[in-house]
User: What shape does this take?
Amino acid sequence: MTMAPVPARRIPPPRGWLGLAFLAVWLYLISQLLRIFPNGTADAFDLSIPEARQVLAITSGFGQIVLFAGLTAALWRANLAAGVSESRIRGLGLGVAGVGLLSLFEIALFFDWIGFFVSPFNELSHSPALDAGIIAGTALVFAGLASLGVGLARAVDLFGRTQAAVPEAPVRSEEPG
Assistant: This one.
């Protein structure tokens, strides 16, 4: 069920969210590239190699979280402008759940790095649950983005109308006259 489109003038374009996502891609990319060379990164910033890996994992995770939050918000705003209700609610819910899960594990890594000891968080950052949580969070975000993308494609009629929505042509009988 779709709602009537909201006038586009009342909903500003999501430029800020897309700009934030663009900057986050660069943070993620640079962090990942520096993770290839942990010795050089550790020497450049006067860190030990394990500390350098930990800092780069934190900055990489932060870039990923901001990227996903920006893309989810931008697609949600586009769905809002198009007036699609089901996809926008489901997609936003999945995207927020994924970003929230990723943020939980990012906080655990950050607390471990700065030495702030909170029992559940520190145990979380040193367990196999860390990788499982990051994978689950990423999967939830991608499910939300897919839902928002399909909803937007339906709103702009990218897939065309279904057979049920296409009115049948009237049958004309030709009578000799």
Remarks:
- The mean pLDDT is 83.
- The helical segments are 15-36, 38-44, 49-82, 86-114, 119-125, 129-155.
- The longest helix spans residues 49-82.
